[in-house]
Amino acid sequence: MKKIIIIIIFTIAIFFITIFVKAQQVSLSISPPLLETIIKPGKSIMIAYNLKNFGDPVYLLVKVVSFEPKDNLGNIRLKKEFEGPIKFSLDNANIQLENPFFLKTGDDQQILLRIRVPENTPQGDYYYTLIVETIPSGNLNNNSASYAKISIGSNILITVTDSGIVDIKPKVVIFDVLSKIKIFNQKINIFDSFDKIPVVLILENRGKNFIKPEGEIILKNIFGHKEKYKIIPKNILSQSQRLIEASSSSKISEKIEFKNSSFILSGFFIGKNNLSAEIFFGENSPKIFAKASFFAFPFKLISIITIFLLISLEIIKKIKKKEES
Amino acid sequence: MKKIVNFLFFLFFFLLFFSTTIFSVNMESSRFKIESANTSIASGEKSSSNYKLSDTIGQIAAGEFSSSGYVVKAGFQYIHSIIPFRFSISNTNINLGTLLPNTPATATTVLTVYFGSAGQYQVTVAESHPLKTLSNNTIPDTNCNGGSETCTESIAKTWNLSSAYGFGYNMSGDDIPSDFNSSSKFRPFPDLSASENPVVIMSSNNVGKNRQATMTFKVNISSIQPIGSYQTVINFIATPSF
Asked: Given 3-state DSSP classes, what are the helix, strand and coil percentages for chain A, each rounded to the nearest 5?
């Protein structure tokens, strides 16, 4: 009889335990992560975003905010206020902008974002982020606590133009190797032949519209051998600069010294090496060029060989002395 | 008797499985059922002409298309496919427990970003306001140990003195700011109620697959801190680059 009572109590306890489980994990995905559009005033487009909930059931809210570039690394700063004449709305039957909705574990929600560019919208670029944010829930009653509000975003780059022609005004700000050697405060581009050589390329967009650089960086060594590194086409927003990355011969290290470089050259270098960059911004756009060079010598190898020779000579001398005595 | 015991064992295991079903039913509150109905309406729309239109636009947007008046491109050209951007947090309710004077309380949560092999992203953080009770007693944001070890919203410094009070956080793991170079380095959260800007706590230029970092929250109060339940909301915003 005791066994029966224990089983009944245990069964009831499991019921209660199950009821009081709290949803705590949030995991959201959004696709596409970036949208670029060139559009005429007076036109409207609808974009289907896919939102998926991989975490616990959650209440969500969709909104659109303006953003601006924060630095030349591609980071953004969300603005507190919505700016610009572009109109956003949702074509969904069940959700609206800034109105909460519920999403179950494992469920998808298609977000049908309508982007409308009113007539007489000034030509130029407008940058926004579609944000999906959670509504913090939970009550830890008498305990002190922090509740996390999670937001996930997808950026929207809008170029408004009547003619479809975009303003391309690029400028090379820096194209050089990052050398640590300085003589009389002058940077000298000399490396050891076995060193990893960080290359930096920063472009400035002086135009009214965002641009996407393409092209390659060519390394020509002392023997005339050429190595090509393809530029990764990342957008440069209007009136901003961006560190341009290229497919690297070596993975960019997590080390701070390499963090702000476009790509890393690795291998064995000797003598004078010339770097040239050829950059263009889409079909029929003019090319821009930049050049840099560096010297490399096997300092470390020569040092090791010299030390080895000196030690060997010393040993030979000692052996000879011993033999003579 | 044996039959009864067997029956109860059967009942126990049956209920064990059944209780799992109850669990999901319980998650579906009356409000949830309404959403579920909406979902099926949306599913119905999938086959309607309206919904087909959006699907079509989604597909076309995946590539490049040109028509009279607009061009749309979706995703990153250099990745050659539309990889979803995913952000996770292991625990949204960060319980700091009952606070005791001069006894630091800590709690952790894990942030994870999934973004293909070439994605660029950032995660920012800010608090809605300092930790406070309903009667507006507040725990100030930490200055860390003070003096030469005074931390700011953008620079982490050592915070290991039991006589240094406040609320702050430490980061460890992937793609975190370089000033979080030990478990005793802390920063205060930027305060949105004081118009401070969110700060980047995770970012990467070229690697975004399964990047994981642990945030440790720490609070330490003095003996004159009024008793109460201190709470705030921490805002995490994850965005891909452009």
From this structure: 15, 45, 40
